[in-house]
Design a protein that fits this description.
The protein has about 210 residues and is of the alpha/beta class. It folds into 2 domains: about 160 residues, NAD(P)-binding Rossmann-like Domain (Rossmann fold); about 35 residues, no CATH class. It has 6 helices and 6 strands, in the order βαββαβαβαβαα. It has a 6-stranded parallel sheet with strand order 3-2-1-4-5-6, sandwiched between helices. It is globular.
């Protein structure tokens, strides 16, 4: 590894995904050694091909990865791995892969005193009008509920360990590295901006809903 890297070692779960790959890229630029853990069920290897990162083809709750976290290999954990398809209706699968996997990873990180930043979602608020406030959550699907469960896990474990845990409730994120969501997964997980861009690029009408309120 480059001698310029002095900030420590960071784990990015779901690092082959759209947001995860951008997080990994930012960490590399900032001087971190970065290890990406991704099972490539949703992520795309193309998002990593220009990044100087180590790639571990593992799920976020893989025993090998949890052991490495617990043994203190990582100074910081950026947890981006999750099922992001809001149309998935299998509640057990959603809760196991989103909430339970996060709990196991978080417990390992706390045991090693690693800093943790994780991806929550604006889906915890449902379709309630703005402003959205903490304590006023009302998810409308199992995806949003799984993220709310994650937030509650983080709050409980942070209080027990007396350590800060940062959760980011992403709204409509868009940008470089999102292409696979449109080309491979169809349009259902792509951002609104990406969908409008593709519609315009192909010369078709730009589809809006509810007077463009989406």
């Amino acid at each position: 590894m480059s001698s310029k890297r002095t900030k420590g070692t960071a784990l990015v779960t779901g690092g082959a995904g759209f947001i995860g790959a951008n997080v990994a890229a930012g960490l590399v630029r900032a001087g971190w050694r970065v290890i990406v853990a991704d099972d490539f069920s949703e992520g795309d290897w193309r998002n990593l091909q220009t990044l100087d990162v180590e790639v571990w083809p593992l799920r976020a709750d893989d025993p090998e990865l949890l052991r490495a976290v617990r043994e203190g290999l990582f100074d910081a954990v950026f947890h981006q791995a999750a099922i992001t398809d809001t149309t998935v209706l299998d509640a057990q699968r959603m809760l196991m892969e989103n909430a339970e996997a996060f709990r196991r990873l978080l417990e390992a990180a706390i045991a090693a005193e690693a800093r943790v930043v994780y991806a929550s979602s604006a889906g915890v608020y449902g379709n309630k009008p703005a402003p959205n406030r903490i304590g006023d959550e009302k998810p409308e699907n199992i995806y949003g509920f799984s993220k709310l469960v994650m937030d509650r896990i983080a709050q409980r474990l942070a209080a027990r360990a007396r350590r800060p845990i940062v959760g980011l409730r992403y709204f409509n994120v868009y940008g470089p590295g999102e292409e696979h969501k449109f080309t491979r997964q169809g349009t259902k997980t792509a951002s609104m901006i990406r969908q409008l861009y593709e519609q315009a690029r192909r010369g078709g009408p730009m589809r809006l809903f509810e007077w463009g309120e989406q």
